[in-house]
Amino acid sequence: MLFGTALGGSTGAGLVFQFDPATGSGNVLYTFQGGSDGDSPVSGVVYVNGTLFGTTIAGGDGYGTIYTINPTSGAERVIYKFQGGVDGGLPFGGLINVGGTLYGATAQYGSNACRCGTIFSLDPASGTIKTLFTLPGGSSGGFPGQLVYSDGILYGGNAGGGPSPCHYGVGCGTLFSFDLKNGAYNTLYAFKGGDDGFYPDQPLVALKGNIYGTTKYGGSNHCHQKQGCGTIFKLNLATGLETVLDAFPAGITNDSAIPAITRVGDKLYGTAGRDRAAPYGDILRLQP
Question: Looking at the whole model, is its pTM more than 0.70?
Fold first, then answer.
């Protein structure tokens, strides 16, 4: 089975679904009510020991939730409600499984004045979360999205921060690493907001010593009020060199879908927003 999430649904608060690729049939497992059970599951789910784990960016006590779904019965249970304090809030990204421990990030709040988000761990057995790091903001970046794991390191993209002023004055975004062994946080690359792109908060892919990802804005083409249509980039972890692999073409509207990629074997697949040739969006493939 394939499992995923979608916005909308009968309540408008989102849903979790399953799809059988062998038969082409699918069904809705759970529809969120938009209250204490969560609202707006903007990221996917992860399957751990027969249970689906996911996050909602809203609902709960107003700052988002971590929930579980029984894939057989469709029963949903909220195991944590973010409080918008030291624990952070608004988990834009989903969860990843590293050796039985789940890791994630919140896009806002935390223990400092920046309120730029947190990195946290979750014990799936007990539902206990632990704040591992609070994003510093400023030149180091803040407002993280989805994390990816490789060789003891978590990697992620920050929607804001960095030395270059763009995106309403909060910076163009950064790429970062977080060492699970010693808790060290490092800024790997700060976007400049031009041809290299900005707003890199979508899931990253680790492959052969490189990090691949997308930016929502920037690039050599002009759309989104001339802010750029977004890019696909590669970051060499050994050298720190960022390379733009492709700049998305100019679109016809200002509400294109946020581009995202995933790895299948040694190829990258993803989605991009609508353009003149594809008014309802694109599915893309990239050979690194």
Answer: yes
How far lies 8's CA from each of 33, 41, 116, 127, 179, in Å? Answer: 11, 10, 27, 27, 37
Give which of 205, 280, 214 is closest to 244, Cα–Cα: 214
CB atoms within 10 A of CB 212: 23
Alpha-carbon span 170 to 63, nearest angstrom: 21
Nearest to 217 by CA among 206, 204, 203, 201: 201
**Domain residue limits, the chain:** 135-286
CB neighbour burial string for 182-191, b if at least 16 within 10 angstroms, e if fewer:
eeebebbbbb
Q: What is the pLDDT of residues 206-251, one digit of tens each?
A: 998 999 998 888 887 666 566 777 888 999 999 999 999 887 766 5
Query: What fold is seen in the domain 135-286?
Result: Neuraminidase (2.120.10)
